[in-house]
Amino acid sequence: MTIQVKIPQNTTLSIKTDLKGNIVSVNDDLVKLTEFDRQELLGQSFKKIQHPETPASVDSNIIKTLNSNEPWNGMLKNQTKSGNFFWANTTITPYYDAEGKTVGQMYVGRTASETQIKNGEQFYLNPKSQQSGFTLNPKKILYKFRIKTKLLFVFGLMAIMMMVLGINLILTKKAEYEDAFNRLKGAEYNLSLAQLMRLTAKHRGLMARVLSGDLSAKEGSLKIENELESSYKKFLELNEEEGKHFHVYELSKETYKDWKHLKEVNLTLTPKESYIAHVGLIKKMLNVNSEVGESSGLFLDPDKDTYFMIDVSLSKLPYLAEKLGQLRATGLAYLGKGEKAEDSERILIQEIMGATLGHFESISVNIAFITKFNPESKIIVDTYKHAEADFPSLHALIQNRVIKEKIPTVKPIEYYNATTNLIDQIFNVNEIISKQLSEKFLERAKAAKNYAITITVVTVTILIFFIVLQYLIIQSIMSVIRNSTNIISQIVRGSGELKENLDYGIHDEVGGLLKWMGVFILNITEIVFILRQVSGELSDKSKEAANLVRNYSITTQDQAASTEETSAATEELAASVENVFLSISTQADHLKEIEKVTSDFKTAMAEVANAMLGMTNLTEEFYKQANDGMLTTKNTADSIHIVNQKAELIDEVVNIINEISDRTNLLALNAAIEAARAGDLGRGFAVVAQEIGKLAEQTALNTRNIQSLTTDTKNAIKASVRLMMNTEDSFRELLSNISKIQETAKLVSFAQDKQTADTHRIVESVHKINENSLHILNAASQEKIAVEEISKSIETIATGTQVIAENSLVLLETAKDIEVTGEHLQTVVETYKY
């Protein structure tokens, strides 16, 4: 189940794509929110994070807007790697290279309100919703009205359109004026914030010196506090006017409260605590700065001359100044510790230096665009270039006299002055840009206001001109139409002559129409003259036509009789075609049965082939297992043979033990003899000799048992060897039989493949015969239908011929009527005078 993920506040999602829509860079906020690794996104299409439910109309609208080199803004639904989704209030704008050429698009997404998300969801659910209604035929509406009404409608519509256009232009310029004025106030607000941030950063550095024991900075800190109070007074006045409009009223007041609290407790804090408090205060100012930039529409300003200035002023310079402030505070803390400073602090200084260098490089790109689109921005460029030129000196100072040396040789006051000077320059650049932005937006507001006034005057003037022009045009057109209508009506009634002139010397479309109407009257004059000559001849020709019709009627009767005979012959042909059709149908049924039988046979052969394949696989597996069994048996026989050899060694050991036993027994006997000779003194020795004799006898008995057991073992081993050899021979015979089975299976498989191929050709032949029979059957069917159609056509011809014969009599009567009509036509032509 997917869930909605919300974009955190004060988070900006940024993506850059090339002209093909492939992602070329993403910021950390987007990587974190989408759960994708950066490398998973780079080079991929933007659609990788676009939700699949996005309507095609959204993409087409984006493409259309960007192709017109305009920014697009709206709600986009995107997806994360885990399948969740989030809504983003997205602005898409083109971005340019150093030459001002469009090289891709930039997507900037921000937090969307609940209302925006709700509207986006409704649109995504029904993107093709349209208002229902009915349509009317415009011709039928226009035909109901007179020309004067139509002209009044057209001129009225044009006047309305002109009014709407004028009002629209006025409203557009009014909106431009409001936007420019809103952005002007936003620029003034941010200028005030820039001054506060500059003074706060300066105060932070001075307080760091004071709290570290440098009392010479106390006077400067008090002076900065007074300046801050004065700046905060102006800032709070501006906040009372525009704070609620920009949604920063409470946050701005909270910023001032934090400053008041910091001012009261500053001297009681440690340098680190003072630094943290100042950083928190500046962060709040940056939040106010971002919110004002968004609420006032500064971030959405599409004009190239202000777009990059806004980007630098609101998004880059304050953060560069803050980084330099961190560099100043961290470096002073490091210098203050002396030999007690840790390597981690040196590494932190290097990291801040690297981030600062990155900010300078990014801002340099924007400065290049500001120079390109703002020829009057020399003071901005010079001020920034001066700051940029001082940075390498600071970098060298820190690198050579702080980082590389074990004990830094630079003095804290020297380090403080170098960093503070650069921070002041950066804030100075920001204030200059903010002032120029205010001036530009003020000029835009004035221009929009003046343009709206001009449009109002022009619109009223054009409307008056349209009303006068409408009256004159309608009068000129209607007077000519009325005069022409009177002349033509008199000609039709016979009270006027065809020689009347309709050329009024008018050179517009109405004059052209009257000229062609004059030509038309001349043509009518010529036609009337010709009709007078023809009307007399028409009566004579009608009599001749009556005689021709009478002769044609007789011929038609004869043709009707011939048609009846042809119809009878056609019926016989139809019967013959019916018999042929029945015969071919029967043959086609037999061929279908043959085709079914051959198909079943082909299926059976396929099953046999599958069975043979299974048997071949089984015999191969059996052959493999038998071969493994033979090898196992051979290895067992070899092992038993080795055991037999070990048993032979046992016999040798037993022989040695028997020899030792015999010698022991002889020794015991000699000992007993010597004990007997010794008498009483040898009794103990006699007992020992007796025990040694018993041990020798027991050893000999055990040795004989071992020798018997070894003999039995050797016999059993020999029997096992013979059995194993018999088993090995059986396996060899089994392998030979399996090989024969495999050869036989291959022969059967080859024969079966050949038979399958033959069966396939038979099935194809029968199928082709069946298709040909179907073609013949269709042809016969078509021939049958054709014969039936011919028969019907002949019947129709017969009927038609009869009707013609009957109608020829009517035609004869019509020829007589034409004679009467000719006489009447001659009477009518005499009506026109010329």
UniProtKB/TrEMBL annotation:
Residue ranges of domain PAS in the record: 18-69
UniProt-listed InterPro entries: MCPsignal_dom, PAS, PAS-like_dom_sf
Signal peptide (UniProt feature, chain positions): none
Keyword set, alphabetical order: Membrane, Transducer, Transmembrane, Transmembrane helix
Alphabetical GO biological process terms: signal transduction
Domain annotation Methyl-accepting transducer: ranges: 534-798
Membrane-spanning ranges: 151-171, 451-474
GO cellular component terms, semicolon-separated: membrane
Protein name (database record): Methyl-accepting chemotaxis protein signaling domain protein
Source organism of this protein record: Leptospira wolbachii serovar Codice str. CDC
